[in-house]
Every structure is written in structure tokens, then in C-alpha cells.
Request: fold
Amino acid sequence: MSSLYLWGIFIGSLHAMVPIILTATGETIGESAGLFNIGLEGIILFSALTGALGAEAGGPIIGLLVGIGTGFAIGSIFGLINSYFKGVQLIAGVGINLFSAGMVAFWLIHLGVPGHHAVPEESRLIDLYTPLGNFSPMIIVAILMPILVYWLLFRTKLGLKIRAVGENPQAADVAGINIYLVRFLSTAIGASLAGLAGAYISVDWIGSVTKEISAGRGFIALATVVFSGLNPLLVLLGGFIFGFFDSLAVWVSTMPAVQRVIPWQLVSMAPYIVTLLIVAGVIGRVRFPAAMGIPYERE
Amino acid sequence: MGKRELRFFGRTEELKKTVIAGIIGFAIGALIILVYGYDPTAAYTALFSGAFGDLYNFSESLANAIPLILTALTFAIGFRGGMFNIGAEGQLYLGALAAVTVSLFHLPPLFAFVLSIIFAALAGIIWSLPVAILKAARGVHEVISTIMLNWISHYLAFYLIAQVLVDPQRAEKTVSIAEGARFAVLMPGTSLSYGIFVSLVAAIIIYLLLWRTVIGFDIRAMGYNPQAAAYAGIEKWKIILFVFIAGGVTAGLGGAVHVMGRPPTYAVYSGIPAIRGLGFEGLAVAMIGRNHPIGIIFAGIFFGGLLAGGRMMQLFAQVPLEMVRVVEGVVVLFLAIPELIRLFSFLKKRS
Reply:
């Protein structure tokens, strides 16, 4: 009996890790090029809604693509402001979060469902049915994506360029790399993965949109990037740890017997407490690109 | 505006930039309103007359500004010191609930009032100290730690409201603040209480602190040039500790003043609908006020007004109130551009 519970929590963890891993992997690309995007939370939220509407119009795959497109569009605004116009990245990120929170709440009321917009079953992505349980195909994407991005960043010439721009933009500029373009594209492509994460939440995993559906996952992804020290392969591990505690909290909230011992509200804190502890524990050992967060000014 | 007012912003440039970002924000807002099939003129007319149209509306705007000014100050103190403290949201929840906790006990009126204020400030400090310690000792970025603590306090608030502070008669809310511990209503028939003076006095104190004291000078020096500040012998950890403690106090007070001065129930509801978002909105207020305490007073009243007017907009033009936050987000996004004025310099040439 208890091993069955454990297996259920494990499957739940795999589903819960997907948005964290996708978002954190994308952000790793952006941060490698030197841009720090705290607007990921807003991008996930916004894409969850647009992805859901896309899925209802054209099916789950369209929904996921709309999510990617939404992420790319918002990421482009972020990239434009912070790469070309040398903006203050943290402030721009706060702007995106406020804008998205407002837009999603506005849009939900406009749709006539202020609280909760459920995605109909036929518009949702179909699970893979296996003897071991039902899995979302997006779990595979989430496992492959960090490996792909690791290969991109550390095994290709393009990856070298991206890291050069984040590490020493002056030298990269002398070498003929277009700093502004590389930064713009890195952050926009990174944001499209956050968009995919948002669409996954509404089109596949949870299957509904509320104005709090992102639930801090954008920020947890940022913490996961810190934990990983910009290594996409460690993002996988960090994402799973978060997913585990997230799934544990959901499980406790459905178990009256456990709830008598420890209320669900306290278990729900676990992912955030664990993230905080992990970041505090590893932070001394990670090193970030030298030019991260600093706008590039040509001499 | 005369020269005297402008001096508060430091430079006219800062005010100009805010005005440009504001115009862009409302223009994009109007476009979105139009795209979704509403009438922007009717919407903005209702919005502004609902915010500043008469004394009643303006009082509601001021009432909304009370917590916003305080949470904006939390952010501004940090920003002046080169830190990005977005923890006001969670600190405010706990400040509000700390004030409610005092009302569980039957204490003499004035004593209960003072104790509520002190408890709220302490709750704010307790919730911001881990951020300062993690930053000073382990180098954890405050954006990460404050956001995690915001979520932890979110669930802690849910727990406290449901299990500890619940009103035995009405399960959907906490016990009400005892009558003797409330802020008196300043404008009868509105939500405006004497709590507005807490916000105004806090802004003035923070202003004096930043610009008229040694520690304030050190904070601004560290924000301006951390290397030079370190070279000048300013101890970084002291500044960090001070900035987060001061920020915790104002955010905690924000929660207390809100719940102790908000008729009719003087309580926090489950799901924290009335206090959720006040910390994040404070960020926008701080940036629009250019992180200057006096600028923040004006920005707080302006945004408090938009929130009040937003209800009228929803009622009379059917445009959802949340449009106010969309505009807010766009304004902040454009304020992130340092050379915003130069981008729009072509406007100057033409005129």
C-alpha cells in the first residue's frame, strides 16, 4: 500500500518538475548571455492562458505552440528593452510580472470566468498510457531539453558565442560578435521555453487557468538556475527536487489522515522552504557570468 | 507644478520620464481596451472621475494609498542601497495578522492599539531578517529569498486565518480588530482613516533618514558605488541589516494600518483578498515615485486613486478593474529604460 503511494508521488513529481525544468533551462540560455529575467513568472502565467485558448481553438499541439509564441513575444520585449535600450533588467522583469498578472485577470473576467477557466478534456494533451501509470509526453521533452541546451551551450560554436557575450562582452565585441543581437535572441528563446512551461500547465498538466496558476514557479525556476550554476544538466536534478515537494504537498492535501497530523497549508510551504535552503547551501560554490545583469555599453 | 515641488524629485528629468512612461502606459491600456471591444474614453472618464472626481472618491483613493505608500517605502530604502527587496508582500500579510493576534486578548484600548502596531512592525522584521542574514552571510540574492518567503508567508497566512485567528461566529474571516485598537475614521462614510498619517509620517522619516543621517548617506553610497563605499570603510553587512529591518517595519506597518483602519469588518478574510498584491503594487508605486519618499506619496495617491476609480470603470464602462494593473505594468516596463527621454526626443524637436 505505502509503495503505491510512493509511486503516485513519484509520478506526480515527474509532472510537477516539467514547468520548472523548461523555464530554468530557458533562463540558463538567457543568463549565459548576461540577461537576468525575473519576469518569467509573468510569462508562465500569460502563456498558460494563451496556450489554453490556442488549444481550445486548434488542439493541444497548437496550444503548446501558442505558449511558445507568447513566451517569445514577451521575451522579445524584454530583450529589446534590456539589450538594445540597456534597461534595468530587474525593473523590466517586475513590469512584465505586473502586466501579465493584470492581463490574465482582465482576460479571465472578459471571458466571463473570473475565477477559474477549465480547459475542455478534448483540447488537452493525451497522456502516454503505460503499465506503470499515465505519463505526459512532455516529461520526455523536459528531460531532453536540458541535454539539448547543454550540448548547445558547451559543444557548439554558437554556445561559445553566447557564453562569451555573458562573460566578456568587450572581447566578444572585438571578435565581431553582435552582442545586442545575441543577448536579444538568447533571452527571447529562453522565454519561449517559459511560454511552453505555461502552456504545459494549462493544456496538459493541471488543465485549467486561474490568475495564480503560475504559483511562483517562475521564481522557483530562477532559484533552480542559481542551484545549477548555469549547468542545464543540474537543472534536471533541481527541477526534480522541487517537483517532489510540490507533489508531496498535493498528496497531503488529499489525505485527511495525514492532514490531522500536519495541515496542508504547512506542507504547501515545503517547496519554497526547500528551495531557500538549497540555494543558501550551494550558493558559495556557483559562479555566474561576469557581465550578468550589466547592460553592454560600447566604448 | 512649481519649482519647489519639482525639487523633491531631485531632477526635472525624473518627473519628465515618469510622465512619458505614464502616457505610454495609458495609451497602450487604451489600445487593449479597444481591442477587447470596450470604449476607452468611457473607461478612462469613469476611472479618473472615480479616482479624483469628488471628495468622497478622493478619500477612497487616499485610503487605498495608505498601505501602498508603506510597501513602496520598503522597496525604495532597499533600492537606494542597491538592493532589490521585493519581500514587502509577505511581510505585509504577517504584519496584518500580527495586529489581529493582539485583538485575541482583551486589553485596554490604548495599550492594545500600541501593542498591535509594535507586533506588526516586529512581524515585518522577523520576516525580513532571514533575507538580510542569507544575503550578508551566504550571498543569496534577495530576489530569490524574498519571493520564497512571500510564498511561505502566503501559506502561513492561510493557516493562521483558518486555524488560529478564525472568528468563531464567521469562519470566513479572522476575529475583528478590537474597537479600542482601531484607527478612527477620518472622513465619515468612506474607508479613509487616520492611518494615512502613519504613511505620511513614515515617508518623511525615511526621507530624513536617507538624506539627513550618516547611515542614510552610507546606504545611498553603497547603492551608488559599492566598491567605493567599501573602500570608504562602509560595512556592507550593517547596511544590509539596516535596510531590511527598516523595510520590514514599513511593510509590517502597511499590513497593520490597513487592517486596523479598514471598515466595516476590520478583519482579514480567508484567501486574503483585500491584502494580496499590496506589496507588489508597492513596487510599482516606488518606481513611479522614482524611489523618493516624497515622490512615493504622490505615486501612492495616484495609484490608490486608479484602484478606487477602477471599480467605477468596471461598473460604468464594463472594463475589468484589472486593466489598472496592466497599465501599471506597462509604465514600470518603460521606466526600466534609462534613456527613455532621449528615445522620445523627436517629440521635442517637432514642437
User: Anything to note?
Assistant: Chain A has one domain: 2-285. The CA atoms of residues 150 and 231 of chain A lie 7 Å apart. The radius of gyration of chain A is 19 Å. Chain A touches chain B through 48 residues (CB under 8 Å).
